[in-house]
Design brief:
alpha/beta; 7-stranded mixed beta sheet; about 40% helix; about 15% strand
């Protein structure tokens, strides 16, 4: 468990630093990386690994990549998500899976992209009602990626300021409803752990054939663990050449392994670099 607490401590320090607006210079962390002198547990700090994902605002091209299954339904990437959908559907033959949490160790590993695209290809199924829920009340991305402007969102529903019907936005041309984030509350962890959230999940399970929940990064905050414990299963997203092995282990120790349906390897270089997605 020492690795878990160490990973959590580093993630929390990074989060607090970014919230306070302080920036650690790259040159402030230096060590000899030669095999003879580097300790076995010494690696690039979390803040440095996340730097590339946090350094610039999302561009229209980034948003298009997040909904590639909608823009290019015949692409290889969309087919990979269909394969993921098919594998999850096959698991339903042994036990029902209506609510699925998408999780990752750190930010910038492709979890939101996986959530959006899995929801899109699932909604392409005939006669299936699908809901995509943005549970990241700190750094939401679903509404921006899908180009929707909700009048109310998850926080408003949990605070009894709007009903689920009032907050849900339907994606044109798909059997896909979206419960996005409108207002960002000061107490996101407490809202997600509230009795209202549990009641909402029960209502979602009754109304939808499948719900995909995009959660925040696991390390550093309790939100992802809270949401996954309310779901029938979870899928973990790991980014090739970026997600450290110890962070994957720490995340699986924090979350309930029994709910793990499988993993998505994001950024894998296949077919000579032609498809650099999933």
């Amino acid at each position: 468990m020492a690795k878990v607490y160490d990973a959590l401590r580093r993630a929390e320090e990074e989060r607090n630093r970014k919230l306070s607006g302080q920036e650690t210079p790259v040159g402030a962390v230096e060590w000899d990386t030669s095999p003879q002198s580097a300790p076995p547990n010494k690696r690039v700090p979390l803040w440095q690994r996340m730097r590339g994902a946090m350094a610039r605002p999302e561009t229209p091209d980034d948003a298009n990549k997040r909904r590639i299954s909608l823009l290019q339904p015949d692409s290889n990437v969309a087919e990979q998500y269909r394969m993921l959908r098919g594998r999850i559907d096959s698991m339903c033959e042994t036990h029902p899976i209506r609510t699925i949490a998408m999780a990752s160790a750190n930010a910038g590993e492709g979890k939101s992209t996986s959530s959006i695209n899995l929801a899109i290809v699932t909604a392409m199924s005939v006669g299936r009602q699908v809901l995509l829920v943005d549970c990241d009340l700190r750094r939401p991305s679903v509404s921006r990626a899908l180009g929707i402007e909700p009048r109310a969102g998850l926080a408003e529903v949990l605070l009894d300021r709007a009903t689920l019907d009032e907050a849900v936005v339907k994606v044109e041309g798909l059997n896909l409803d979206v419960l996005a984030v409108r207002g960002q509350p000061a107490n996101p962890s407490e809202l997600l752990a509230s009795a209202q959230m549990r009641t909402l999940m029960e209502e979602i399970s009754r109304r939808y054939d499948r719900a995909i929940l995009d959660t925040p990064a696991t390390l550093g905050i309790p939100d992802s663990k809270t949401v996954t414990e309310l779901c029938d299963g979870m899928v973990m997203v790991v980014r090739a050449d970026r997600t450290p092995r110890e962070d994957v282990i720490a995340t699986l120790e924090i979350l309930d392994r029994r709910r793990l349906l499988g993993m998505v390897l994001n950024g894998a270089d296949t077919d000579g670099g032609r498809y650099r997605y999933y």
